Amino acid sequence: xxxxxxxxxxxxxxxxxxxxxxxxxxxxxxxxxxxxxxxxxxxxxxxxxxxxxxxxxxxxxxxxxxxxxxxxxxxxxxxxxxxxxxxxxxxxxxxxxxxxxxxxxxxxxxxxxxxxxxxxxxxxxxxxxxxxxxxxxxxxxxxxxxxxxxxxxxxxxxxxxxxxxxxxxxxxxxxxxxxxxxxxxxxxxxxxxxxxxxxxxxxxxxxxxxxxxxxxxxxxxxxxxxxxxxxxxxxxxxxxxxxxxxxxxxxxxxxxxxxxxxxxxxxxxxxxxxxxxxxxxxxxxxxxxxxxxxxxxxxxxxxxxxxxxxxxxxxxxxxxxxxxxxxxxxxxxxxxxxxxxxxxxxxxxxxxxxxxxxxxxxxx
Length: 364
Prior knowledge:
The chain is an alpha/beta fold. It is built from 13 helices and twelve strands.
């Protein structure tokens, strides 16, 4: 592009131009017909913002906290795999950008840099994403390393008993890099005739029997807070609160698992109501604008996580690109607050948005 990107979509276009097709498709694609992938973004457009006027918004405070940790804005970096496919500096660049942006990065288990390398790269609060393996000793070993390396929470992904059918990866015969975090502990080399390396790996090692009773096992091996990622219904939200998790992430895995699962923003309020304030509710999926963040906060999310936008910034401009993407979302969110009549995150209420099911109320 001849000019600097002015929104996330333009960063996506830059990433598409610079990345090999196989890698761009790996990051950008969803499962099967990609209905949910499209809906994650479109669902935000069906929510309108109801601004209030004549309010002093000369000073805007975007800061908030999650699990007691202060962050400069309600924006965290979601766990995403294989950052070195996007840029040679990989997760190290992303971690440094997160630290500079005063926010929290959730490091993916499938990172190209080890959790120790990322921890040593800069001083910042970080969480670690965990998959549960058939061999529970592997998962326990990863948790112990995360604790030792100073990670502050475990984000356990629970929507992957098997990997979703990502047809673009199958067509491209996507080859996944060796899992750096397992190097020296176990071999992760998979020979597959199915076309997709990530799918073969997941189906070989992830534990499809992992269930609610096993949350107690996870709690027994760590003192770190546990967030459960992959909740989409009020039933599961209620159950998660009952088993004592420390946070819930409303997520459909970036629309990469079950196609025709609901868009995350469309079920956020259902989950928030079910939890009843017992634990914080976070959201990922489809966030591309500051207005999206505002809508999620109005519907009860404490924080949103962004994944693909970070990858697009990383691919386009490395560490600086990640910082610019986060800055862009912050600037858009700040403007949204000002125009909606909110001087801080705490001022955002349910009355600031109207969903597609709500009709305008008028007084005669």
